[in-house]
Amino acid sequence: MAASTTARLLGLCLAGTAAVAAAMPAPAGAGAAPATSPSSAAAASQPRGCADVVLVWAGGQEADLFRDRLEDVPGDPSVRIVDVSARAPRLERDDWSAVQRQGLEHPHFRGYRDAGARVVSTAAGVAQRCPDTPVVLGGHSAGAVAARAALRRMSGAEHRVARRQLARVLLAGDPLLDPKEGGHVETTSEARGFLVGRGPRLPRWARRGDLVWSACNHQDLLCDAALRDEVPLPGTALTAPSYVTELHRTTADLGTVRPRTAATMLTGGRDRLDGEALGMPPVRLTVVRLPRGLRIAERRDGDLIVGSPRPGRQVVVVRARGVRLAPSVERRVRIVVTGVSPAGRPGTVLVTRGRDGDPAGGGSPLVSADGGTVIYSSYADNLVKRRLPERAHLFAWNAATGHTELVGLSPEEEPVEAYWRDVSADGRRVLFHSDGALWLRDRDTRTTTAAPARAQLTEDGQLVTYPEPPEGWTHTRAASPDGRFVVLERRTPRSGFAVDVAVRVVDSTTQQVVHEGTVTEPTDVRYAPAELTADGRYLKIDSGSISGRGSHVVDTADGLRSVAGANDISDDGQRLLDAGCFALDVVRHATGEATRLVAAGLGDHDYDECPLAGTSLSRDGTAVAYDFRGEQVLPRVRTRSTQIYYWRSPGT
């Protein structure tokens, strides 16, 4: 398992260029004999005499994992690993108090300064002899400290060329890791280096642009703050044996520009491709071949390929160099671009667009009855001008203006973690719960007031408070738009983990039960009655489980029989929302005629869960909001995070 994981890692972070030549001869002063990939000897006749990638290893246990599995690297690139420091002695329990007392003067770390100097001379040699070979610098434990020392040495102007050839810095088991330094930190929230503050800090230039990847294994006593005051058990090593799992999590962001890649662009609109979409770091692009309809857009944070491609396959050829990672290394890149039609139906709009124009992310949409407002939750901090703490916030989006407003606010107008309960027909008033209580937000008066615990919001924005239900029954948030009919439930556990959910539709004016029935809640699924049509007949039930969210519609007049193909239903029962895992349709109930709103492009991504989750249909059946995780719904919405989209039937 470890071997294959290492091979995948090397393929992602090191196989960034075509196999050009043999590994570079080891520079003077290097320690252990360097290792080369199997292709190195065959490439020795290449005129440049340089490897595709040089990994300069500053010490520690992890280099063997790279060295031993080079033959499994996809594409068999030429890779040279240069060890500049002998492996430090293994730390055992008896060394614990000495490490605490001596810090970096302990024999395990002694000599890190000299090792750092050798790292710098090695990187400078690569830069001089092989200017187009990216350098990856790494180290484990004592080697991570040596790598830090090398970065400090490279801060001088005389090492600018070598600095600009660095593609990545990997610090595994870093005893000086400090999450406040920035960079990409792969660690538990409590973990930081045991010797933080007692050795070389990362220079400012190295903390920019995700150059440095630093990891602390939670089992590593030199890294885990939670274990800082504990005495290790006899025979316990102070440094963890492997960081392969953590290294694998970094996937394709470790590196260098790939010589061949493929991407899709949407036709019929101005789409764009950036480095992330191409599986590369942010890059500067120079055109070699560019099909008609496409062009390069220069941006400070990385160039883009923009435009509307022709349908089908076309080839783009560019020269690319990193903006922040290895900016002096240029590579020729061949990109196969496939022009495809957008998955979203014409007229679809991105709801969760940030103030900067980029997709911000969000989920769990709710459309008002008139279809003019979408209420949703998001952790994004770029949807409104106000600075927000990191938590789930509640927003309202105006379909007519595209304006986004924060509605999850306390009576003192402070942002709170909030989740919607209901919205009035015109979108003016939002009922939400926060910190165990119900609150009513009036968007016109910009006020938030407390609401009774059993309150429901009617379509005209009025609060209705229902009497205490019969013993054993509880109120749900489902009620008819005018508040006349309300839904009660009673939950009875069965054998195993299944639950019988009894449902009653009660006429609040007469307190009579109009419809009732029972559904069985499957294991690991939670049902929540959500919306009721005006006549009290059709009930939408939301469901949630560890595998995702969904909903279905039942007919309360027919013993809670499920309505086939219905995840939501209009108030008159004429339109259904049929939401599968990969597609969403609006269906006419009487005829079965379907209007497809979105369909995931199967094969474009490896979905580990349904890309389509939360959906909401306006009560008149003309407007739909849904959250979807996919890159091909709309042009320029190039993100794998979940976004919310909106569609309204033309002419309504």
Describe what you observe in this structure.
With 652 residues, this protein is mainly beta. It has 3 domains: 2-254, Rossmann fold, CATH 3.40.50.1820; 260-340, Immunoglobulin-like (Sandwich); 349-648, 7 Propeller (Methylamine Dehydrogenase, Chain H), CATH 2.130.10. 11% of the residues lie in helices and 35% in strands. It contains 8 helices and 40 strands. The strands form 10 sheets. It has a 7-stranded mixed beta sheet with strand order 1-3-2-4-5-7-6. Strands 8-14-13-10 form a 4-stranded mixed beta sheet, with no helix packed on it. Helix 5 crosses helix 6. Keywords: Disulfide bond, Hydrolase, Serine esterase, Signal. Belongs to the cutinase family. Residues 1-32 form the signal peptide. GO terms for molecular function: carboxylic ester hydrolase activity.
Structure keywords:
652 residues, mainly beta, Rossmann fold, Immunoglobulin-like, Methylamine Dehydrogenase, Chain H, 3 domains, 7-stranded mixed β-sheet, 4-stranded mixed β-sheet, 11% helix, elongated, disordered N terminus, AB_hydrolase_fold, 6-blade_b-propeller_TolB-like, disulfide bond, serine esterase
